[in-house]
Amino acid sequence: MTLLKKAIASILLLSALKANAQDKALMTAFSTSYDYEAIQKYDAAITAINTVYNPSSYEMNLRLGWLNYLGGKHKDAVSFYQKAIVLMPAATEPKWAIINPLTKLENWNETEKTYLSILKLDSKNASANYSLGLIYYYRKDYVTAKKYFDVALNLYPFGYNNMLMGAWTNYFLGNKNEAKTLFNKTLLYSPNDKSALEGLNLLK
Predict the structure, then answer these.
(1) Is domain 1-108 annotated with CATH 3.10.20.600?
(2) Alpha helices per DSSP H over the chain
(3) pLDDT tens, residue by residue, 117-134
């Protein structure tokens, strides 16, 4: 019995030492990657993380997504962020992060899907609603754009972008009174605003 206890104690000690060494290597890798990032040596920063990379680590995938994005490797960045999203499906953090490389790749369909997935987790998020409004606005789908701009506007009624884009959307929908009201409110925030003045001039 004593020998068995000693054997178990030895195994536990070795496991603890191994875990401690792994933790130290991980800390060193992340620290090194931050140092390289600070001097814009992104490939070196990526290599530092790759030396300890574990595909099931949310933190590593998120970090590699960011570093690849900074290094202009946008497809790789998307890939790592997607892995992070799978690992933490209830988190909005990687979803916001993946929008950066998706935007650089001009992948608007995936960007749209990402914003919609954020709203499933956080339906009243003003930024996601506004950004979706922009996507539909530039597609000239003003009905859908208004739906999202209205949410953002209700959350931030005196937000410059919300008022101005809400005004233009209502203008294109033929809602002249609503457009005029919002253009005038925009001028309260930004006197002599060219876009708001243009809109009011068109409504005359």
Answers:
(1) no
(2) 2-38, 42-50, 58-70, 74-87, 93-104, 108-121, 126-138, 142-155, 160-172, 176-189, 194-202
(3) 999 999 999 999 999 999
